[in-house]
Amino acid sequence: MEQFENFPKFGILFIDVDNFKQINDENGHNTGDKILQMIVKTIMNNIREFDFLGRWGGEEFVALLTNISEVELVMLAEKIRELVQNSSLNMEGKKIDATVSIGATMARKDDTITKLISRADKLMYFSKKIGKNLVSAG
């Protein structure tokens, strides 16, 4: 029991840009890159300087957030989701929007990095499955 009490509190956000292929196909890869840059800037402006954001794959990102409670993790995920939803690019007079689906989970005592990332990834896919532009936590 003592060991669990001393377990550091941290969480993971697994973030995926919704309909990114469509954004690229309709607007070109240059615009897709600018959308990714806009989303990264939004995330970086809303996490603390000691938190970590990394690109996982093409349009997927993982944020590692330390010293955070589950409630704070979900609130931050919702804030990021909403800020991205309310952002847009103006490219040659055309407004281009993007949304993200997010899986949010806290590290557990028996987690491996594989289990933790897998859980966050599954939660993100659940967000996509039930409608996109959502946060799923667990």
Features:
138 residues, alpha+beta, 5-stranded mixed β-sheet, 5 helices, 28% strand
Give a brief description:
This protein has about 140 residues and is of the alpha+beta class. The protein is built from 5 helices and 7 strands. Helix 2 crosses helix 3.
Describe the structure.
The protein has a single domain, classed as Alpha-Beta Plaits (2-Layer Sandwich), CATH 3.30.70. Strands 2-3-1-6-7 form a 5-stranded mixed beta sheet. It has a two-stranded antiparallel ribbon with strand order 4-5. Helix 5 links the parallel strand 6 and strand 7. The chain starts with a helix and ends with a strand. With 138 residues, the chain is α+β, with helices and mostly antiparallel strands. It has 5 helices and 7 strands, in the order H-E-H-H-E-E-H-E-E-E-H-E. Helix content is 44%, strand content 28%.
Estimate the helix proportion, in percent.
Answer: 40-55%
Q: Mind telling me which CATH architecture this is?
A: 2-Layer Sandwich
Tell me the total number of β-strands: 7
Average pLDDT for all residues: 93
What structural class should be given to the helix and strand makeup? alpha+beta
The CATH C-level name is: Alpha Beta
CATH superfamily grouping: Reverse transcriptase/Diguanylate cyclase domain
